[in-house]
Task: inverse folding
């Protein structure tokens, strides 16, 4: 078997996966096929001796191609909607494998929401949330840092889940409020905690933190202040995905991350997150109080 034939075989082994990636990013079966074919052309012209992980390399290449196609699509709003519409009922696709791709987790409703995202948000969300591609691999595709790529996926996830986008927060003000909150918590200063909490504040804990003894949901300033008064002794002020938060660690390993949402100078939401997948992805940097 020649090297070209061997490469073709390896590519075919990855074709179904690549088509799934491209379809989820683009929402169009014909464009997905074009992206996969372009990936084959680039592979056939590349020095394969330098490729350690062919599947990962091809996924990255398809991601870049799809990002370019999305950006081109945005730059030509006069392009007929049918060329890339997620409504595929009238598209004749005889391939049962691609029909299966269309029929699974990517429903019409999701594709419609994905159409509202920026190209970079859409790519980051699809690659990470649907195909578990690390942000370190996504970052070069979108030309940003891993932390920025994580933020892109996070914004996209909120849109997909129908969660309102949090308002922009001044980073220095966020740090000031979180620092004061941790100090009041450790010192048991109930009145100071109340002053920093919005009356409708919500405290949420994920399943991993609940398993450690936390309450899954606490509502209201009084209840949340009571929960934190005299607590958070081991939580340390940290930069969490670019904003001030707190982290509780054991033996140097983060166990629980405290995320704060602040609106009009008051804390409106506190999230306690300990899910292992989240802890692997989140960008944490210690801060001096």
Result:
């Amino acid at each position: 078997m020649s090297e070209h034939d061997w490469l073709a075989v390896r590519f075919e082994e990855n074709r179904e996966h690549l088509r799934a990636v491209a379809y989820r990013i683009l929402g169009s079966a014909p464009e997905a096929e074009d992206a996969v074919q372009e990936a084959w052309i680039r592979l056939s012209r590349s020095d394969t001796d330098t490729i350690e992980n062919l599947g990962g390399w091809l996924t990255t290449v398809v991601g870049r191609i799809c990002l370019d196609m999305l950006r081109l699509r945005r730059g030509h709003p006069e392009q007929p909607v049918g060329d890339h519409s997620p409504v595929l009922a009238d598209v004749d696709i005889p391939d049962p494998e691609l029909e299966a791709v269309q029929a699974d987790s990517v429903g019409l409703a999701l594709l419609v929401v994905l159409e509202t995202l920026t190209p970079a948000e859409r790519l980051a969300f699809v690659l990470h949330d649907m195909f578990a591609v690390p942000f370190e691999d996504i970052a070069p595709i979108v030309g940003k840092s891993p932390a920025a790529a994580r933020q892109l996926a996070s914004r996209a996830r909120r849109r997909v889940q129908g969660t309102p986008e949090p308002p922009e927060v001044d980073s220095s003000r966020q740090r000031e409020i979180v620092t004061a909150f941790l100090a009041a918590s450790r010192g048991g200063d109930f009145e100071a905690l109340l002053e920093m909490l919005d009356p409708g504040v919500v405290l949420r804990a994920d399943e991993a933190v609940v398993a450690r003894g936390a309450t899954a949901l606490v509502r209201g300033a009084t209840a949340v202040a009571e929960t934190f008064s005299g607590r958070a002794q081991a939580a340390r002020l940290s930069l969490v995905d670019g904003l001030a938060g707190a982290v509780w660690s054991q033996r140097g390993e983060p166990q629980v991350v405290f995320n704060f949402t602040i609106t009009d100078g008051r804390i409106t939401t506190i999230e306690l997150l300990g899910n292992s997948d989240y802890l692997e992805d989140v960008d944490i940097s210690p801060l001096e109080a």
Residues 24 and 106 are 7 Å apart (CA to CA). The chain has a mean pLDDT of 83. The beta strands are 197-205, 217-219, 236-240, 243-250, 253-263, 266-273, 284-286. DSSP finds 13 helices and seven strands in the chain.
